[in-house]
Amino acid sequence: MSIDHPSFGRIDASRVIIFDTTLRDGEQSPGFSMNLAEKLRMAEALEELGVDVMEAGFPVASKGDFDSVHQIAQKVKNTVVCALARSGGKNDIASAGEAIRPAKRGRIHNFISTSPLHMKYKLRMEPETVLEVIEAGNRAARQFTDDVEWSAEDGSRTDPDFLCRCVETAIRAGATTINIPDTVGYSTPEDMARIFNDLRTRVPGADKVIFSTHNHNDLGLAVANTIAALDAGARQVECTINGIGERAGNAALEEIIMVLRTRHDVLPYTTGIHTERLLRTSRMLSTITGFDVQPNKAIVGRNAFAHESGIHQDGILKNAATYEIMTPESVGWTRSSLVLGKHSGRAAFRDKLRAMGYDNLEEAQFNEAFSRFKDLADRKKVIYDEDLVALVDDEVRDHARIRFVALDVTAGSRRPATADLVLEVDGRREEGHAEGQGPVDAAFNAIRAIVAHDATLQLYSVGAVTEGSDAQARTSVRLEEGGKLVDGQGADADTLVSAVRAYVHALNKLLVKRDRAEPAALDA
């Protein structure tokens, strides 16, 4: 059975709408803040990936959130741009409507809690009042757009009869998409199947709307719950790149897509996703946020297609299908034979980066990356793909306020360590000198001497990008200020330089986060 939708026209029953909330739910994660330029880059990548809807932010949260949604709405050409709003928020829906006004296709996504626990302790509302808010919120949203989504926050723990009443109210008030989130990741696949089958058979008008599923991963069941909801009639899935999101995250877009593609025999659904762009989109998000995916992460982890067991290697050499259920190339991995070294030129370096998915570097970024590559090639005998990813990621991050320039350190067992640091701050060259208990402490104190701040260091971790004593160092830093957490990463052949790059990356993110204020009752 097909459905007519205001943004997509007639939708066949086999078509699944991909709703990406990386820029909204994903960005709510501790340490994952993005500035405007980074959000615009990510929005462009999501559109190139082929997502149908991108939730660009929560406009009423702050001027920065409003501006980012508004500018994404201006920039995006084909993807529906969605803004989040509370159903009963005083200014939420008007702010969302204004933010998406430039969009070729815009959506307002409004929500309210419906579970007994949330209504009693979070909203302090009676069920009948919640129904009135649902009615008013969706009617208000329809004044700005025909594409309106409504979500029952904590819907998976809502009384089934009351959930049916809520959904019926939202449909009657003009909602065209109904989303049932497993907000706290509590449900099992059997629960999700029951919920959607119940709603589709009991609620008047259910055959005229798209049902959507939004699953958190607290019990590691987000993707499984998403698949169960699809089997029960949901035709929109809400997900994020790399599965980022609050607490344990959301259902991972790349995992859902490859489940549908690989098991098309039992899941006969189609999407508009260009799977060969999955890896580069994943890497872009990791670069922007400073969070790498774990090595054994499905689809995009560096071990996803690695085989160390002799039995496995033997099978792969004879027939890749023995141990690979999908090809690496299908999700964007390449098996390039081009080896780079100290004599490689700009053309070879550019071709290698393009093969790895870095095809949108600005000329200044490319020039700096090439310069760092040549420096690295003088120090390292073998340049691995991982080395290139590490150094290029440093350059494509947005150093809007603070940028590393140079570092000199003296250290030893006979005297305190000292650091002389040069940073570019808001376009001005600034120098700082400091002592410390060791070289890292001295370098971080030098940063503080140049850029005054009250953030405390919560995490400092150093690892090697590749094997060998000449491997690049990759450093992770976590800063905390006023309850706000940010993570930064840096890489360099010099461990101390990588540490400073990581601290500077985190500090840039902290400056973005200082100006953001989240309104009460934000979740969904």
From TrEMBL:
Chain positions recorded as Mn(2+) binding sites: 25, 214, 216, 250
Lineage: superkingdom: Bacteria
Gene Ontology BP, a term: L-leucine biosynthetic process
EC number(s) on file: 2.3.3.13
Recorded metabolic or biological pathway in which this protein acts: Amino-acid biosynthesis; L-leucine biosynthesis; L-leucine from 3-methyl-2-oxobutanoate: step 1/4
UniProt-recorded Gene Ontology molecular function terms: 2-isopropylmalate synthase activity; acetyl-CoA C-acetyltransferase activity; manganese ion binding
Catalytic activity: 3-methyl-2-oxobutanoate + acetyl-CoA + H2O = (2S)-2-isopropylmalate + CoA + H(+)
Entry keyword set: Acyltransferase, Amino-acid biosynthesis, Branched-chain amino acid biosynthesis, Cytoplasm, Leucine biosynthesis, Manganese, Metal-binding, Transferase
Pfam family, one: LeuA_dimer
GO CC list: cytosol
Cofactor: Mn(2+)
Primary enzyme class: transferase
Stretch list, region Regulatory domain: 403-524
Keyword Amino-acid biosynthesis: yes
Statement: the UniProt record of this protein carries the keyword Methyltransferase: no
SMART domains assigned: LeuA_dimer
Quaternary state and interactors: Homodimer.
Similarity section: Belongs to the alpha-IPM synthase/homocitrate synthase family. LeuA type 1 subfamily.
Database matches in NCBIfam families: leuA_bact, PRK00915.1-3, PRK00915.1-4
Entry protein name: 2-isopropylmalate synthase
UniProt gene name: leuA
